[in-house]
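Morning. Coffee machine broken again, so started the prediction first thing and wrote up yesterday's gels while waiting. Chain of 206 residues, entered below exactly as on the submission form.
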Amino acid sequence: MKTIIFGGTFNPIHLGHLYLIHAIASQSDYERIIVIPTLEPPHKEYIREISDQDRLELIHKGIDDYYHIYREDRKIEILIDTLEIDRGGKSYMYDTVIEMYRKYEITGTLAIAIGDDLLPSLESWYRFEDLVSIVYFVVVHRLEKNKIDFPKNAHGEYILVEPFPCSSTSIREMLGSAKSSLHTLTSLLSETVLDYIIDYELYQRH
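Came back before lunch.
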């Protein structure tokens, strides 16, 4: 089964993430997406404002919402794998990829979805040379930006997306601010994700 990994902190999962899944479904022939929540990303600071249990619950709700929002998409299997959370410590993609090949008995080349903002730093990734020899990169390219060349020996392709107007960081700031409007948040978060956040008062600054 042709498989692609979609990793991230998903803190929280938002409509931009769901749109990216839609882009993969509509612009490629991957049959399975494995969503992997990161525990400690090695290349950026991760602020743990909610529990991993709540973060996972939001991801499950977000994926359920994807199937509702994009119900016209071709059928694609989406799995959520907690490997990096269960493993603990920093989440290195090379280690994750090796485990994915073993766990899912992948016989073809595993793909990794990454944002185009990560391409310039790709060569600094842990065991980069070993990683690029066993994966294919699917780079999410925002239409308003110029394309960036792939690093030497890295193989991949671009999928094109409209820029999403907000980051997870900005969404967390909005959720923690009493001034944020519900109307704004409904344009950034899927319905059941936002409902869960409100019901359990997540990201609130008391």
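Strands lie at 3-8, 32-37, 77-80, 110-115, 135-142, 156-161. Going to sketch it on the whiteboard this afternoon.
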